Amino acid sequence: MSNYRILVSQPKPSSDKSPYYDLEQKYGVDVIFRPFIKVEGLEAREFRHQRIAIPDFTAIIFTSRTAVDHFFRLCKETRYTVPDTQKYFCVSETIAFYLQRYITYRKRKIFFSESGKIQDLIPLITKHNKETYLMPVSDVHNDKTSVLDDNGVKYTTAVMYRTVSNDFAPDEPLDYNMLIFFSPAGVKSLKTNFPDFVQGDVAIGAMGNTTIEAVKDAGLRLDITVTPQAPSMAAAIDAYLKAHRPAVGDEE
Q: What is the fold of 5-36+167-244?
């Protein structure tokens, strides 16, 4: 293929300052944002089958903005008015500020990890050990709950949304030189949509231990992942392209 095409299996960034766009300029590649998966919210009747009563909980643990959206969506659909006394414990400051879409931001009831890691949220949670904690999750949630378990946090998980394959159209080709994954579900979707996929020279990148394992379990070769020297996926792709493709202006 004359044009080097990179599929990043995430939604297109809202800002034009994304480092992925810098890669396009630097190496003359095309970066296409095309999620392999999408999120669907559980309907209120499906949620009720879990026999979880949201009013029973005085604190909510949020690990993503998606969890925030579906928590408040289900509260609305079940006609539950979230009290002003509700406390929120967020994995990152970004998620904490995102709460302003739904509530008035008050520091006395919103807590977050400074590092963006759930491990650093534990001291705040244990300090408020009289709260009853609810954690909205996907049907396929990652290992964040194990951190809570390891630290003896008493909490309840509530599945509020599910991850499903974002199917390709029958005539939609998989004509990419590089595929980048961020979840095991994305890898599974690749195999579902293209059961005869042969990797060949296609470079595959993955972020996160479970995603890396999913790539290997699928019999695929892992070419790109984050490292201490390349701590973001964009930086990891940059390092790969630097070793395999000349930058614009460096061609002979």
A: Rossmann fold (3.40.50)
**Of the candidate ranges 18-27, 72-81, 82-91, 134-143, the one whose mean pLDDT is the lowest:** 134-143
pTM: 0.68
| pLDDT tens per residue across span 136-174 | 998 876 566 788 888 888 999 999 999 888 888 888 889
Is 68:99 a contact under the CB 8 Å cutoff?
A: yes
| Residues 65-75 as b or e (16 or more Cβ within 10 Å = b) | bbbbbbbbbbb
DSSP string, 87-102: EEEESSHHHHHHGGGT
Q: Which two tokens stand for residue 172?
A: 């939609």
The residues of the chain that CATH labels 3.40.50.10090 are: 5-36+167-244, 40-163
* 2 pLDDT more than 80: no
Cα distance between residue 27 and residue 241, in whole Å:
8
CB 176 within 8 A of CB 202: yes
Euclidean distance between CA atoms 34 and 147, whole angstroms: 31
Beta bridge mates, 134: 60, 156
User: Residue 241 gets which letter from DSSP?
Assistant: H
CA atoms within 13 A on the CB side of 121: 24
Q: Could you name the CATH architecture of 40-163?
A: 3-Layer(aba) Sandwich (3.40)
pLDDT bin (cut points 50, 70, 90) of residue 1 is: very low
